[in-house]
Write a structure and sequence with these properties.
heterodimer; A: alpha+beta; seven-stranded mixed beta sheet; five-stranded mixed beta sheet; B: alpha+beta; six-stranded mixed beta sheet; 16 helices; about 45% helix; about 20% strand
Chain lengths: ~425, ~425
């Protein structure tokens, strides 16, 4: 200890990596588990969340949706649960205490969280550690859960927006796994086997492929001691994890799809390829959508909703680490007006000038910066945000989004619009109600 | 977070203080309900939207620009006859936001061209609403429980569309005068300094109001036997269900906490702890979600209980049979000792977790305020939930959760199995 001051959070075996805006990063040396901590003192509540770098993009054809199916299975028993005659430690935790639990799977990651009164932190971490490597995967647990996942699929597939997005993705991406929906194809879900799930689990569910986030009313020291207690005994993965990279071949022209169903609803959707998150290009894309489609005073709402051509305009833009497709949806007021609206939409976007977007840009920047304050006001909301930045590969960029936004100019927006709405990036979908 | 209540002749408010907080979030509500008619329903859809289209010397664009220039928002909507204005801003921009709020409330422009625009937009939304199976199922349930005139009654979309077209600027001004004459309810979240500023502003505006006018209360319908209502919406994959019945209890009724406790055991909203989720979903794999709760129970009006779920057409009969079986079981045998002790903890945890978020705390307390709970009676209610006895819960379930006298309302692709569903009568 030659003249160095011990950090108040020094725990043997846990290495401090960095700190930014109240979030501290550590690494558990034994197995390379990454730990993120932020304190929200005095609330009495803690949210702990574990993210695995495993999602839809890691799936192979014929096994789409396996990451999501496995997510469901993480709420089934572990070997420890069976020893104690419990059907599932995680579910028992909820049943006995009323804590909030859930999980979600997305393109680049799967994440599991508990939100609870702070006295339950040990139990939460213990369950998380146990199910990382000790899940019992059997047909007995799997078959009824597959029925639930199929039920979930049917719930979403009935929605015209979902069905249209599914079809647009499939056309937009010919090689990259972002081309399939995270839920997977129904046919694949029906053909899942335990072996497929086991393979995925053994490939990706390791400490070195995970980030454990603990946010809330718990001190750093307390948190690190407990993390070490429950996670240090988990070994490293015996092999180096391989995450495949697949390049999407260049798109050479506009692509189109059509869905016809008995319905009153008619939708024009435009799928637009955009840069990965959290790059400058992604934030410019976010700003383009905000300027053209956010709020009743947005450019497209004034043009299409106020004039009666459309009932509503919305958009979906996901924070994925690689090039993805955003969807702009226009719900049409009248049937069979898809084509004319498409022409008018592209004409409107191409005619935008810097002067026309300057005011909107400054308003949207302020709006998004304010939204960030709101989206980080509780441990649960903070963790949700932190998850997306962590999933993209660099959690510290959570605190540089404001910088990106403030640097944006009207010229950036116009150039980005020209770039995004190039025909070679577009896939257009019509939902036609019959 | 510190909570405090104030009550005057024209304003009742609850403050939730988080020291040093930068975000400011508050809600103001006014109960507009006198008697529900199709015209009143149409007016309540249009009024809040037109309210947002210009105030004082500012037209819609200018007013919106002034708000967005400071990253603030003011939203308005009505639900079950209650108008709610929601304001989001930061402590830095609070004063400017409050100045805009003052103009928003006291000097709406109600321009004819904006009314025409909103009429068109709301008509479009209602056309889409016709295929919203989940909402249509709930509407059918409520229309079986409450008569026309009750705030819970929902008129057919086509009749509301016809009424929307008849609304005039004069109607909007009358509605606004009605808002000004009613007592206001506010729930305010932020730092101590911001709360004080907001209270001063709202109190100053509210002082111009007159005391409350009397409201006609309607009696809910008596449900005998199982009423099955089905609406065919062929574009959907699943059939959405709203199952429920009247609950002849007000918020301050002694049996209400006991019934709420029992309802949580059967069907706790959210998560997997309720019996219905653990059996119908987890064990039997028949649905992705099945939850229940009491709704629309006021201090002065009776409400109802409702179970929400959905099934694929092929699983509908088994799913409904399963759900009805569990309702019958809890009605007949009540809750177990183990469930009783578990749910005491579960409901206590719910109260702790709400403290994680200022915004969720404001939303929850405001909803309860609009139903007629004060901060004191809310605290009494949560205390009553913790102190309820198992026998009281079982008596309440036996009395008010009858599997024989309820409504099953479904919407979706029902035609192929309508006959089999009707056999569940």
């Amino acid at each position: 200890m030659s003249g160095k001051t011990l950090r108040s959070d020094s725990i043997p075996g846990i290495e401090f990596i960095q700190k930014k805006r109240g979030v501290s990063e550590y690494r558990l040396r034994k197995n390379n588990l990454t730990i993120l901590h932020k304190e929200f003192a005095g609330t009495g509540v803690v949210t702990s969340n574990i993210l695995y770098f495993a999602g839809a993009r890691d799936e192979q054809l014929g096994a789409t949706g396996v990451a999501h199916m496995l997510e469901h299975m993480l709420f089934k028993p572990t070997t420890f649960d069976l020893e104690q005659n419990i059907d599932s430690g995680a579910m028992q935790f909820e049943r006995e205490t009323g804590i909030v639990l859930n999980a979600n799977t997305w393109k680049d990651r799967t994440t599991y969280y508990f939100s609870y009164p702070k006295e339950h932190i040990d139990r939460a971490l213990q369950i998380e550690a146990e199910r990382m490597r000790h899940l019992v995967l059997t047909d007995k647990e799997f078959q009824p859960e597959r029925a639930n996942v199929l039920s979930e699929f049917d719930m979403y597939f009935g929605d015209p927006f979902f069905a249209l997005e599914l079809a647009i993705r499939g056309s937009a991406f010919h090689a990259h796994p972002y081309g399939h929906e995270t839920l997977g194809f129904r046919e694949d879900i029906e053909s899942f086997t335990i072996e497929k799930l086991k393979w995925f689990y053994d490939e990706y569910y390791w400490p070195g492929n995970a980030v454990l986030m603990i946010v809330g009313d718990c001190t750093k020291h307390e948190t690190l001691v407990k993390v070490k207690k429950y996670f240090a005994k988990i070994p490293k993965s015996p092999k180096k994890r391989w995450r495949h990279t697949i390049s999407e071949p260049p798109q050479e022209g506009l692509r189109r799809i059509e869905i016809k169903r008995p319905s009153n609803t008619n939708i024009l959707s435009v799928g637009i390829k955009h840069p990965g998150f959290p790059s400058k290009g992604w934030f410019e894309t976010l700003m383009v959508f905000a300027v053209v489609a956010n709020g009743p005073e947005s450019i497209l709402k004034r043009r299409f909703v106020d004039s009666g051509i459309a009932t509503d305009i919305s958009y979906v833009l996901e924070p994925t680490s690689e090039e993805n497709i955003a969807i702009l949806n226009i719900v049409l007021s009248k049937p069979k007006t898809h084509q004319s609206t498409e022409v008018e939409l592209l004409k409107t976007l191409k005619s935008l000038k810097q002067k026309g977007v300057a005011k909107k840009l400054s308003q949207e920047v302020i709006g998004l910066i304010t939204d960030d304050l709101y989206s980080r006001e509780s441990s649960m909301k903070f963790v949700r945000e932190l998850t997306e930045y962590t999933s993209s590969g660099d959690w510290t960029k959570m605190f540089s989004s404001e910088q990106h936004l403030n640097m944006m100019t009207p010229r950036n927006i116009i150039e980005r619009i020209e770039n995004l709405f190039d025909e070679k990036k577009l896939t257009i979908g019509y939902f036609i109600g019959e | 977070m510190k909570q405090k209540e104030n009550n005057s002749a024209v304003l009742r408010s609850v403050e939730i203080e988080r020291p040093g907080e930068k975000i400011v979030f508050f809600k103001i509500s006014v109960d507009l309900h006198i008697q529900n008619t199709v015209y009143a329903e149409a007016l309540q859809l249009v009024y809040p939207e037109v309210l947002l289209t210009g105030s004082g010397k500012y037209n819609r664009k200018r007013f919106t620009d002034l708000l967005r220039d400071i990253g603030s928002s003011i939203q308005a909507e009505t639900s079950d006859g209650i108008l709610t204005i929601t304001v989001c801003t930061t402590s830095e921009h609070l004063k400017k936001t409050l100045n805009l709020l003052k103009i928003f409330i006291t000097k709406p422009r109600f321009e004819k061209k904006e009314l025409l625009r909103i009429q068109q937009i709301e008509t479009g939304k209602l056309e889409l609403y016709k295929e919203n199976a989940r909402s249509r199922a709930i509407d059918q349930l409520r229309n079986n429980l409450f008569g026309e005139g009750d705030r819970r009654y929902e008129y057919e979309p086509d009749s509301v569309i016809r009424s929307i077209k008849k609304i005039t600027v004069h109607d909007l001004r009358d509605m606004h005068a009605h808002v000004a004459s009613k007592k206001w309810i506010a729930t305010i979240g932020g730092s101590g300094k911001t709360i004080k500023l907001i209270l001063n502003t709202i109190s100053h505006i509210a002082q111009k109001n007159k005391p409350e006018t009397k409201v006609t209360r309607s009696a809910p319908k008596l449900i005998r036997g199982r009423n099955i209502m089905l609406l065919n919406i062929p574009s959907k994959q699943n059939i959405e269900f709203a199952i429920g019945s009247n609950l002849p209890l007000t918020l301050d009724a002694g049996e209400y906490p006991a019934f709420v406790f029992g309802m949580n055991v059967l069907a706790k909203w959210g998560g997997f702890t309720g019996r219905l989720m653990s059996i119908v979903r987890e064990k039997e794999g028949l649905t992705y979600g099945i939850y229940g709760k009491t709704e629309s129970v006021y201090a002065t009006e009776l409400g109802y209980w409702r179970i929400f779920t959905f099934f694929s057409p092929k699983d509908t009969i088994r799913g409904l049979t399963s759900a009805l079986r569990e309702i019958a079981a809890i009605n007949k045998k009540g809750i177990t000792d183990s469930e009783f002790y578990r749910f005491k903890t579960i409901l206590k945890t719910q109260q702790i977790l709400i403290h994680d978020s200022l915004i969720e705390s404001v939303k929850q307390l405001h909803e309860l305020q609009t139903q007629g709970l004060t901060l004191k009676t809310y605290q009494d209610f949560t205390s009553a939930l913790q102190n309820v006895k198992k026998d009281e819960v079982n008596v309440a379930l036996k009395k008010y959760l009858s599997p024989k006298n309820l409504v099953i309302a479904g919407a979706g692709p029902v035609n192929s199995i309508a006959k089999q569903i009707q056999k569940l009568k």
